[in-house]
């Protein structure tokens, strides 16, 4: 499963083959894990995947 990291304060998104690779980049090279959101590549900002309908009500 592919993962991506999205910067919390600027429009930057980077895709990685694994969650470990995404977290490693964010922590070591991206200025700290707290500056990034890590999620599955098919997930939108609310955390649901693109193939899942959003939960309502």
Note down, in words, how this protein is organized.
The chain is an alpha+beta fold and 57 residues long. Helix content is 19%, strand content 25%. The chain contains one helix and three strands, in the order ββαβ. The chain has one helix at residues 19-29, and strands at 3-7, 13-16, 36-40. The longest helix is centred in the middle third of the chain and has 11 residues, at 19-29. The termini are far apart. Residues 48-57 have low confidence and may be disordered.
Quick overview of this protein structure:
This protein is an alpha+beta fold and 57 residues long. Helix content is 19%, strand content 25%.
Observed structural traits:
57 residues, alpha+beta, 3-stranded antiparallel sheet, 1 helix, 3 strands, 19% helix, globular, disordered C terminus
The total count of helices amounts to 1
User: How big a fraction of the residues is strand?
Assistant: 15-25%
The SSE order reads EEHE
- Separation of the first and last Cα atoms: 29 Å
């Amino acid at each position: 499963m592919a993962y991506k990291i999205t910067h919390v304060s600027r429009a930057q998104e980077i895709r990685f083959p694994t969650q470990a690779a995404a977290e490693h980049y964010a922590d070591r090279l991206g200025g700290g894990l707290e500056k990034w959101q890590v999620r599955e590549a098919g997930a939108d900002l609310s955390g649901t995947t693109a193939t899942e309908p959003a939960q309502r009500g």
